[in-house]
Amino acid sequence: MLRRSVIGTSLAVVAALGLSACGGGGGDAAASKTVRVTLANHVWTDNIKKALPEFEKQTGLKVQVTQLGEDQLSDQYNVKLNAGTSEIDVMMYRPLQEGRLFAKNGYLADLTDKTKSNNEWDWADYQAGPVAATTDEGKVVGVPIITEQEVLYYRKDLLKKAGIDNPPATLDELKADAKKIKEQNPGVAGFVARTGKSPAVTQFSSFLYSFGGDWSDGSGKSTVSTPEATAAYKYYGSLIKDEGPANVSTDMSWPEAMAIFTQGQAAFYTEASSLYKNATDPAKSKVADTVAFAPFPAGPAGSKPYNIPSWALGVNAASSNQDNAWKFIEWATSKAQTLENQKAGVPSARKSVWADADAVSTYPKDLVEAMNAGEKGAVGYDRPRVTKVAEAREIVGQPIVDAITGKDVSASADTANAAFQKFLDDEKK
């Protein structure tokens, strides 16, 4: 779910890069010596493109890259994959947005055996949450390349002024600290976060899990009106309603919420770790020198932030060049390439890079500590895992808005539960 400000939008760029092939490899005698790779506009893509000559020299293969903006990428996949194209070998996709749909439609090749075939590449080095997100019905269908986790952003200066020695370790402490700071600082909110019906779903998910709730029970039964889920909706809504900005809007996504925080108008903010530079860059943030990070606060069920792969690499099931496609993925996601990307500011799903001092030297120390702490109880999805994700988010996000605006949260959760159950039933048909 990397945001558009991160991945950008641009026209398609197609680049055939590399040396002449001298050996295709793979089990298919007719396998092409050219691996056709479709990638999103992203700093990860830019870094990999720069390193491609190394891969091509090692393998004798040639890599043809098609690079697209997020919307263009989705449009191309919708058209080409639905038509059964074999013109794509490797594809960069969003596991939690289209992964379930792609797997259900048979677009993604089963990579389970390939991930086990190279101990040096080391599939066991990948974090559990991202692995779960790229696994469908027991089959590995993708390799995570970019991750993010929900963490707590906060203002050190406001905590010090309020006599608060440490950032809140629990959600109860978060609410109490936010209330205290708001009362002491007129015009400054104690807390801010996303409020839009659909955008808020992903960030609300960590609150939901930490209260012991979930979107469904795994057997096709909606659980958005359980006592745990209802309590989470009430908490999130009241935290923004009571301790949030005055006259808070109910259509904020991350840019609007981040702007409030970086303009110095809020003390606490829960958001994706991948967006941290917006808060720490003096060119973007008025409070850059006072921003700090902490693990997501624990609720009744503990601290359970999402830890997800916003992007992954998969192999087109219709490709006749799958062995060579895997060679590219194996190289692009190797420990060496991952280390270089991590150092360049692209957070990885590999455990080893988060334990490597050199790999995290460009990240705020407390952000690394927060993410390492959060990974222990993390959940590998931040929205319902369904095929029609956008529709599902609209349904389960409504109680968030209703809670913020002071409506009957229990009634709203019951209504959403009935609607989401119908949605789940329809998806089975």
From TrEMBL:
Q: Which domain of life is it from?
A: Bacteria
Report which residue ranges the record marks as coiled coil.
none
Q: Which residues form the signal peptide?
A: 1-21
Q: Write one Pfam family the protein is assigned to.
A: SBP_bac_1
Q: Which UniProt keywords apply?
A: Signal
Q: Does the keyword Transit peptide apply?
A: no
Q: What is this protein called?
A: ABC transporter substrate-binding protein
